[in-house]
Amino acid sequence: MRITRPAAHARVPLDQIDLTDTGLYVNGDAHLVWQTLRAERPVFWQDRGNGDGFWAVTRRADVHRVLSDHETFSSEGGTAISMLDAPDPAAGLMMQSTDPPRHRKYREQVGRPFSARAVPAYTDFVRSFVKESIEPARDGEVWDVASSFVRLPMALCAMMMGLPEDDIDPLLRLAYASLAPDDPRYSTHGSTKPTAGSAHYEIMGYFAKCIWDRRRNPTDDLTSYLMSIEIAGRRLTDEELLYNCLSLLLGAVVTTSHVVSATIIVLAEEHGGEGFWPDAMRAQAAVEEALRWASPVTHFMRRARHDTTIAGQKIAAGEAVTAWIASANRDESTFERPYSLDLERTPNRHIVFGTGPHTCLGSHLARLMLRTSFEELCAAIESFELADKPVHLASNEIAGVVSLRLRTKFRP
Ligand code: HEM
Q1: In this predicted model, what pLDDT tens digit does every residue of 13-53 receive, in sequence order?
Q2: Which DSSP helix (H) or strand (E) runs through 174?
Q3: Which run of H or of E encompasses 173?
Q4: Which of 53-57, 134-138, 141-145, 200-204 is the most confident on average?
Q5: Ligand 1 site, residue 95, Cβ cutoff 6 A
Q6: pLDDT of residue 194
Q7: Which residue segments constitute the domains of the chain, with CATH numbers given?
Q8: 96 CA closest ligand 1 atom index
């Protein structure tokens, strides 16, 4: 997604806003749209032109409430605007599409390998993958940092789940086809629905085979672990296993690398296209600010369980409410100078990983990957220059960069 810095009083006409349009995130100015909504219509009805629509909340306080108040807002009626048109087949079967109290039971079990205590064990793997990813830049040619780093989360996920290295690239492609089906690089059927649907189907088919293999030859990876856990006194059914493997794969692979790309772009923009790594980049505060800046997940969605109000606006039972996290992370009532990258920002009350019961399961992993990436990039590269205009992912869900070609100068 293009990350812009709209002037404080700039606005767009409300009747021109279409939050579903993927073009808005590639060539348009989504930050200007969200700034307008925060100021003029913080609970906005997005008409889809078919007699249907959804609510969009853009202020941090409202986004926080929608994501955390699970008694009012359910995750079982679709969690993104791409899921508006049909019931969610994974409701109650996949952790992310399940409400408490059952969700809590999932989380206790599935969360163990992702805890703050468990994640440091992956540091060496991440560091050596990052070092290898930087290596091609040494030959002096133009280096596409977005293509190199997009493989890191997928490689880590494959290692944890015990998937062969040869499957990294095909799975990565399927994950993007599933979450960014409008993007011309991933669209396989010329239209959104078949692309996303068949990608889901292929990923689940892939995991069906993994599970079948492990039934015959148990292993000690995350896939076998999921097969062994018990929730409410029984093991997961095949359907539950497949949906949760799909959710882990999609959650893990399409977000983290875009934080690295978005940070490089802003550091270059601040210096007329040529950037360098400030010393502050190695600190945790900088990782948090890079996360806020990039906000790689634009929104999540909920359904109102009963009639309610948000900031005085009536919401009817069953209506869809989207919570725009990327807008909340620029809310001027929470963040001073929201459109400045301040690597020492404290406190930094971003909600990039969501909040409430579904707060990102992979936040410790994402932080590990980002901290290590910035450490190694700072250690190896003295300065960089944009060789081309960055190419952005066509998605209303993931704020992504698909190509970021750089000329780099290595440290002596
Ligand atoms: C910078 C990187 C990441 C961002 C910005 C991010 C963002 C989010 C957000 C906002 C949610 C909340 C969803 C909701 O409220 O419905 C979430 C949930 C989730 N994330 Fe992440 N995520 C990232 C990385 C990861 C990684 C590396 C994993 C790997 C396991 C992961 C796995 C998940 C899962 C499984 C959930 C569902 C949790 C639940 O329903 O309890 N994410 N993520």
Answers
A1: 999 999 999 999 999 999 999 999 999 999 999 999 878 99
A2: helix 168-179
A3: helix 168-179
A4: 53-57
A5: yes
A6: 61
A7: 14-410 (1.10.630.10)
A8: 40
